[in-house]
Amino acid sequence: MELKDLKEKLTRKKVSVWEKRDRKVIDEYSKGYKKFIDYAKTERRAVEYAVKELEKEGFKPLSYYLEKGKIEDGDKVYYVNNFKSLFAIKIKGDLTNGINIVGAHVDAPRLDLKPEPIVEDSGVAMAKTHYYGGVKKYQWLNIPLELHGVVIKNDGTKVNVSIGDSEDDPVFVISDLLPHLDRRKGDVAEVFKGEALNLLLGTISISYDEEIKDSVKLNVLNILYEKYGIVEEDFISAELEVVPSLPARDVGLDRSLIAAYGHDDRICSYTGLTALIEAEPENKSAALLLTDKEEIGSDGNTGAKHHFWITVMKKLLKLQGSTNIELDIDDLLLNSTLLSADVSAAYDPNFKDVHDPANAPRLGYGVAISKYTGARGKAATNDANAEFFGKLRKVFNENGVIWQSGELGKVDQGGGGTIAKFFAEKGLNVIDAGVALYGMHSPYEIASKGDLYETYYAYKVYLNKM
């Protein structure tokens, strides 16, 4: 055998998505994603968007089928949990045979307003924040910011707040210190303090009577009252999130990349959503699971540790005629699989020293599959079984999916977690698969359009064929 043939037979060659796919198809898919990512700036808005798209395609809420009293092959069901997580499924066959799930998270690093946020100092009204998830604090200074969320008033009324994403709206800024005066030295975590991430709200007094204290703050409160009917105490029962006011844009002269806030992990949420909508499962039911709070440990009743979807599955089993729910749910879980649809760190030539070039995913080379995540000795990870990875690889190869393996940085360099382990502990076979990014957790992350499209295609093949 010629050495060239031997090399081709024995070695693995990474393939660029751009070499194999139609550029027009990729660009068209990217347009839909950019509309989504510009709207879905919070987990609530991401779930709201998903529900609208699902209902367009004939999905109905679980309550509809509970009233109907049964489910059948071809039925499309969704359930929203506490406004910030979602489970949707296309029924195919006996549920005890298992289901194939794409699981992603819809939260992203951000700043949250504190319960009593508005203060005045030296004639400047500001809003105090608490950062959410792993952020580099300095990246949030002197960039345009928006405010989105809900306020629950004393009478129980829910008020939706959205300031900054309309052309007529003001934006917000957290001011930085000018270089002429900045002589701070030391670790970046010590130089940039979380308590100093205060949002500029205003500088005009409601009255210039010296007896009226904090009159700039009062003016800000009055503006909010006139617009939303809320008072200062209402902030205590609110969820208000500060996010970058930066629309998704093409990057590079070849327009091969997209910069946006929230790629992690709404890029996998969108690809999972569109894959489920178009899926025609052959062997098992196909499902999408969107969770919250991954960036802070997946806790709470909307995070992945709260397996609300299992309760949904028990109800569906009953609707399918099960007479022993507790036994059948065990069979369902053990026969199910989940792609932990989360992003990974792409090899960046500007920061070569933190990557293992042989194992780091590259921009434009397809969906990145990570057998494990975790940190330092694979701590806190689901290390996927070889048998499951082998079956997935076979399905992807047989259906022309362009994929690459990857891990999150060099050994002992860092690491990170996903939702994978919380489903593996329930008996599912789980592996991480998603889009590789530059600048993960920054206010303006970068992804390849090619990887965006290929991840959608990979999820659709998985839902159809596994």
Describe this structure in words.
By secondary structure, the protein is of the alpha/beta class. The chain has two domains: 3-108 and 261-465, Zn peptidases (Aminopeptidase, 3-Layer(aba) Sandwich); 111-244, Roll (Aminopeptidase i, Domain 2). Helix content is 30%, strand content 24%. Helix 3 (23-39) packs across helix 13 and helix 8 packs across helix 13. One of its GO terms (biological process) is proteolysis. Pfam families: Peptidase_M18 (PF02127).
Secondary-structure content class: alpha/beta
Average of pLDDT: 96
Just name the CATH architecture of the largest domain: 3-Layer(aba) Sandwich
- Share of β-strand residues: 15-25%
What's the N-to-C terminus distance? 36 Å
Poorly predicted regions are none
Q: Quickly name the level 1 CATH class of the largest domain.
A: Alpha Beta
GO biological process, one term: proteolysis
Family: Belongs to the peptidase M18 family.
GO cellular component, one term: cytoplasm
Protein name: M18 family aminopeptidase
List strands and helices in order, with pairings:
Layout: H1 3-10, H2 17-20, H3 23-39, H4 43-56, E1 60-61, H5 62-68, E2 76-81, E3 85-90, E4 99-105, E5 110-121, E6 124-132, E7 145-152, E8 158-163, H6 188-191, E9 198-202, H7 215-228, E10 238-244, E11 249-251, E12 257-260, H8 263-278, E13 285-291, H9 308-319, H10 325-334, E14 337-340, E15 344-345, E16 367-370, E17 374-375, H11 386-398, E18 403-405, E19 415-416, H12 420-424, E20 429-434, E21 436-438, E22 445-448, H13 449-465
